[in-house]
Amino acid sequence: MNVLIFGATGMVGQSVLRECLAAADVSHITAIGRTPVAVHHAKLIDFQHADMWNYDGIDAALMPFDACFFCLGVSSAGMSEAQYTHLTYDMTIAAATKLAQLNPQMTFIYVSGAGTDSSEQGRSMWARVKGKTENALLALPFKAAYMFRPGGIMPMHGIQSKTRAYRLLYSLTKPLLPLLHRLFPDQLTTSEKLGLAMLDVARHGALRRILESADINKIGTNR
């Protein structure tokens, strides 16, 4: 299986990259982003691309792939809806539209978040934008597309968030995370379960196109 990862330097991207590198049935991985990944491996190509809204002229680097894991994302804090839409909806759909043209048999997996608003009408700005993004992805002519909506993610195996505030938060709450995971198993997952679930859905599909934390944990545990 040939896989493409957008955002492999972030916590979610690192999680699925780790599982892809360990998987015997994944023969080739291309990580595409604006910054280099910290991992070196014989089956990994680190493709740096400056303009994540424009993919003209790089068709050869974007095909052929069996699956794409789209893990790019930013916090909406301090942003207007127009700014957040540009960095979320516009960026994601630019890449996905190109990939659907080049790889119609691809499975596309997008990571949004718990609370995403599929109606696009709710009060939460980020949830509306994420819902609009999910809906647009589900309408593209991929073989299959799945929306992952994790809640809290417990980082494992040295994986860290790129966001300083999130790293500080995880550091402060680390002693409590295992307890919270036991108390609220449907709201929390681990980076390992998330990566395993994403890879399993790329291989075998899933019964639902929108997967919440409980679904992710079930798939990531029983893969």
Give a summary of the structure in a few sentences:
The protein has 223 residues and is an alpha/beta fold. The chain has seven helices and nine strands. The chain has helices spanning 11-22, 81-102, 125-138, 164-173, 177-183, 191-204, 213-222; strands at 2-6, 28-33, 44-48, 67-70, 107-111, 144-149, 152-154, 188-190, 210-212.
The average pLDDT value, as a whole number, equals: 91
Strand tally, please?
9
CATH class: Alpha Beta
Poorly predicted runs are none
Order of helices and strands: EHEEEHEHEEHHEHEH
**CATH architecture, please?**
3-Layer(aba) Sandwich
Give me the Rg, rounded: 16 Å
Q: Could you describe the largest sheet, including whether it forms a barrel?
A: 7 strands, parallel
Coarse morphology: globular
Number of domains: 1
- Structural class determined from secondary elements: alpha/beta
CATH superfamily: NAD(P)-binding Rossmann-like Domain
Intertermini distance: 17 Å
Indicate the CATH topology. Rossmann fold
The share of residues in helices is 25-40%
How many helices? Answer: 7
Which strand order does the major sheet show?
3-2-1-4-5-6-9
* Strand residue percentage: 15-25%
Describe this structure in words.
This protein has 223 residues and is α/β, with parallel strands linked by helices. It has a single domain, classed as NAD(P)-binding Rossmann-like Domain (Rossmann fold, 3-Layer(aba) Sandwich). It contains seven helices and nine strands, in the order E-H-E-E-E-H-E-H-E-E-H-H-E-H-E-H. It has helices at residues 11-22, 81-102, 125-138, 164-173, 177-183, 191-204, 213-222; strands spanning 2-6, 28-33, 44-48, 67-70, 107-111, 144-149, 152-154, 188-190, 210-212. The chain has a seven-stranded parallel beta sheet with strand order 3-2-1-4-5-6-9, sandwiched between helices. It has a two-stranded parallel ribbon with strand order 7-8. The longest helix is centred in the middle third of the chain and has 22 residues, at 81-102.
